[in-house]
Write a structure and sequence with these properties.
Layout (H helix, E strand, L loop, with lengths): L27 H21 L24 E5 L5 E3 L2 E3 L1 H12 L6 E6 L5 H13 L4 E5 L1 H7 L3 H4 L1
Parallel strand pairs: 1-4, 4-5
Antiparallel strand pairs: 1-2, 2-3
Helix pairs in contact: 2-3
């Protein structure tokens, strides 16, 4: 009958100790603060991004030839840095005021840019910025592939 009074898990008596100083660092509050900071930075990151909204065509074949439609405003930017709005030459400094005159009476505030492929990205952004400042709501980019397709697929036929 030795086993009748056996206490499972209580063979050893635990006695209380006098509290003593611990040199271990408690990292739980530090981790909590870091997680809160991480969430704050993740929430504010999308607010700091800047960009220009541009509608790019998904399929070139779905778009009609915008250059031939009389109600479309087409800005051409050549490799020689000359700008023309519907085949009328314009200086870059006068572009915003010219576009403002064109678009202030128009209901549809959409403009298409035909840029030379050798132009720098910053040059096109300057033109888009001037257009947005003049009240243009949508800016479309006419790509080289769209121009070739509109003129009868020159590159595929050669």
């Amino acid at each position: 009958m030795l086993h009748a009074h056996r206490h499972f898990g209580a063979e050893r008596v635990v006695r209380g100790e006098v509290p003593h100083a611990s040199s271990d660092m408690n990292v739980t509050p530090l981790i909590d603060v870091l997680l809160v900071l991480l969430i704050i930075f993740m929430a504010t990151l999308p607010l700091t991004q800047k960009g220009v909204d541009v509608n790019l065509p998904l399929e070139a074949e779905n778009k009609p030839n915008q250059e031939n439609q009389p109600n479309q405003i087409v800005l051409e930017y050549t490799a020689g840095r000359s700008i023309a709005v519907n085949h009328q030459p314009v200086q870059l400094a006068e572009l915003e005021s010219k576009l403002r005159d064109i678009f202030e009476t128009r209901k549809e505030k959409t403009m298409f840019i035909v840029g030379d492929p050798s132009l720098r990205y910053g040059d096109i952004v300057n033109v888009i910025d001037a257009a947005k400042g003049a009240g243009v709501e949508k800016v479309g980019i006419v790509t080289l592939g769209m121009r070739e397709e509109a003129t009868g697929q020159k590159s595929a036929g050669q």
